[in-house]
Amino acid sequence: MPPPLQAHRLLISHRRLPTPARRRFTAVSSLQSAPATTLAPGPATSSILSIRESLLSGERTAADITSEYLSRLRRTEPSVRSFIHVADAAAEREAEELDRRIASGEKDAVGPLAGVLVGIKDNLCTANMPSTGGSRILDGYRPAYDATAVRRLRDAGAIVVGKTNLDEFGMGSTTEGSAFQVTTNPWDDSRVPGGSSGGSASAVSARQCVVSLGSDTGGSVRQPASFCGVVGLKPTYGRVSRFGLMAYASSLDVVGCLGSSVFDTATILSVVAGHDKMDSTSSSQDVPDYVSELVSLDLLESKPLNGLRIGIIQETLGEGVDTGVISSIKDAASHLEHLGSVVEEVSLPSFSLGLPAYYILASSEASSNLSRYDGIRYGRQVSADDLNEIYGESRADGLGHEVKMRILMGTYALSAGYYDAYYKRAQQVRTLVKESFKGALERYDILISPAAPSAAYKIGEKINDPLAMYAGDIMTVNVNLAGLPALVVPCGFVEGGAAGLPVGLQIIGSPFSEGNLLRVGHIFEQTLQNFSFVPPLLAER
């Protein structure tokens, strides 16, 4: 049965939902009887801070740092395939120019991101660099401008090393939907990195770049972060400008950040966040200094999260979630308790309705947004005898199967006679989801859940079963429907691959509470013991 019809059955069966229940969280993991956590150095360190200190001290040059990352990229890229385009020559020139400015004593040469190599998801426009959205229809397109988020990174001194791979126009959960190549997971090259920001996540995981930008419409930053063992942040809707981001679903799209540590992710957010006159949906709310809110390990109290109220979403630990993932999340919850927080289970009865509502709304918006790629306004044009044939042949030749399917789904949901049954009903469910989260976040400071119901699965395992692939987004889509911020931090492993497969903990907060999420995530990663989230790909080389 097509997804809209399946979604319709879920939506029409909805009745008034009871008030979310809550109960004391009871750990069943190995940490249940563990002693209080010892605050010892954790595995995550800040690459951005290390680069900045080495440049200021003269210990290393920007050219040396760039050469190191480019060398690693060239060694690993044949197996990982994170990048669609690598701007190595431009990166080397920018590094040399930075060294010249530092040597000449220019005070503003060392910006907050000076010498930091950044990967940019290829649905964010970059001046004089290919920006394809992972689609053949935009093959060869080079924008004349940078997306606002990209421009702010450059203004802070970042060096754009290239454009990362993605599912076409962000429509997918594995990065197998790219028109150009299939990206692999650095933890096991037979597995997917997640999607649609799989290239951005795998590039950071393989240390091909320091940090990266992605986009998150229904989990496209957070699920790959979980699969690849990196930190991923989906900001509040409107926190970061969408100007220059190729639109998929405009009411859901958010530019997100990925890094190997919470500190690096916070640094990137501090740079790219803020109002933009080019985006009417961007918020004018002041941007705090997210980095200053992160407390160093040696200054933490023995119970640094004392009094923090945490709700673990009951519906995310049930049927359909791998037992290894559930165990890792319960271990993480126990760790948070040992740090002083109070963890209780909370029920969000509308949680399961978010997935069908999301796919109706996202596909409906996509059917409108992607109408511009017709061979006339945007996209490669196929020669034909009349205008309708140009439209039809250009789109048939340039767009992939998944994109076409979602356009058809969205057009169907918006068509006369079906609008009320699908689109209007999905919007009503969206309101229920928002209210459900609002009620829970009035009682709890943060909510936690898995970032995905499983760890990374095999390439090709779900490509012919779209419903199974869509079901993998159940943990993340509700956050986008509610417009909330969410942070994913690595929290453990499950069996698989040569060294296990990483699992991510999703931390959800109220609108514009990114600072609190980053603070909690930073404390969590710094105090987490006996884990190293460096893929075996790097240890082998």
Automatic annotation (TrEMBL):
Q: Which GO terms describe its molecular function?
A: ATP binding; glutaminyl-tRNA synthase (glutamine-hydrolyzing) activity; hydrolase activity, acting on carbon-nitrogen (but not peptide) bonds, in linear amides
Q: Name one GO biological process term.
A: mitochondrial translation
Q: Which UniProt keywords apply?
A: ATP-binding, Chloroplast, Ligase, Mitochondrion, Nucleotide-binding, Plastid, Protein biosynthesis
- Which GO cellular component does the record give, naming just one? glutamyl-tRNA(Gln) amidotransferase complex
| SUPFAM superfamilies membership | Amidase signature (AS) enzymes (SSF75304)
* Enzyme Commission (EC) number: 6.3.5.7
Q: Which Gene3D superfamilies match?
A: Amidase signature (AS) domain
Main localization is mitochondrion
PANTHER family assigned to the protein according to its UniProt record, in alphabetical order: GLUTAMYL-TRNA(GLN) AMIDOTRANSFERASE SUBUNIT A, MITOCHONDRIAL, TRANSAMIDASE
**Subunit details for this protein?**
Subunit of the heterotrimeric GatCAB amidotransferase (AdT) complex, composed of A, B and C subunits.
What protein name is recorded for this chain? Glutamyl-tRNA(Gln) amidotransferase subunit A, chloroplastic/mitochondrial
The species is: Panicum virgatum (Blackwell switchgrass)
